[in-house]
């Protein structure tokens, strides 16, 4: 019984997840959202912590939406600063980017190669089943038709996986190249 009471007390003590911004619009309605509410562009908006404490007060600005844009720009600048700091702290030379990129690409390429191998097997099986289906003079056995449907579905799934892995491969290469260029720019060193 006391365990139940402790659990209930713990659940009550856990603060409910709150939005990052709160305000009361011109009509007196309260708004709580992760981004500054659009309905509150002409009133004071409060940025709050998870516990509900006010972090800062955002005054309304003349043009509608200007406060929202300013907060968005501040967040974007803070995020860029955080990413820049992480890049500078994570790598000490441009060559480290190449090593990390190659290691990540190797993993994706191994997955891609595995899917290609399986796809070749499935396509081969599909050809065999289509040949078996064509060889029937009358109505083919339902098991063969079902088998062909399963193999065709698996082929489509594997093709989608290949496309996804290829996209991941390209995005990973691009991201490492972009990060390396940004690191070089931040460090002011030549490649």
Structural overview:
This protein is of the alpha+beta class. The protein has 2 domains: 14-88, no CATH class; 93-187. 65% of the residues lie in helices and 9% in strands. The protein has 4 helices and 4 strands; from the N terminus they run αββββααα. It has helices at 2-13, 66-90, 94-135, 142-187; strands spanning 21-24, 30-33, 45-48, 54-58. Strands 2-1-3-4 form a 4-stranded antiparallel beta sheet, with no helix packed on it. Helix 3 (94-135) runs antiparallel to helix 4. It starts with a helix and ends with a helix.
Give a topology summary:
Blueprint: H1 2-13, E1 21-24, E2 30-33, E3 45-48, E4 54-58, H2 66-90, H3 94-135, H4 142-187
Antiparallel strand pairs: 1-2, 1-3, 3-4
Unreliable stretches covering 5 or more consecutive residues:
11-19
Q: Which geometry do the CA atoms define?
A: flat
| Structural domains: how many | 2
Strand order of the largest sheet: 2-1-3-4
Q: Biggest β-sheet, characterized? A: 4 strands, antiparallel
Query: SS-based structural class?
Result: alpha+beta
Number of strands: 4
Share of helix among residues?
Answer: 55-70%
**Could you state the oligomeric state of the chains shown?**
single chain
């Amino acid at each position: 019984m006391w365990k139940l009471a402790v659990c209930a007390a713990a659940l009550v003590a856990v603060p409910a997840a709150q939005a990052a911004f709160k305000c009361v619009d011109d009509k007196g309605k309260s708004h709580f959202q992760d981004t500054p509410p659009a309905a509150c562009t002409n009133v004071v908006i409060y940025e709050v912590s998870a516990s509900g404490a006010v972090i800062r007060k955002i005054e309304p600005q003349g043009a509608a939406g200007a406060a929202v844009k300013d907060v968005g720009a501040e967040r974007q600048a803070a995020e860029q600063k955080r990413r820049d700091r992480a890049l500078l702290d994570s790598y000490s030379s441009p060559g480290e980017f190449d090593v990390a990129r190659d290691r990540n690409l190797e993993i994706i390429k191994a997955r891609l190669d595995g899917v290609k191998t399986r796809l070749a097997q499935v396509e081969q099986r599909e050809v065999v089943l289509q040949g078996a289906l064509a060889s029937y003079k009358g109505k083919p056995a339902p098991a063969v038709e079902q088998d062909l449907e399963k193999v065709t579905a698996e082929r489509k799934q594997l093709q989608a996986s290949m496309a996804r892995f290829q996209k991941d491969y390209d995005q990973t290469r691009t991201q490492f190249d972009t990060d390396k260029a940004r690191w070089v720019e931040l460090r002011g060193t030549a490649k």
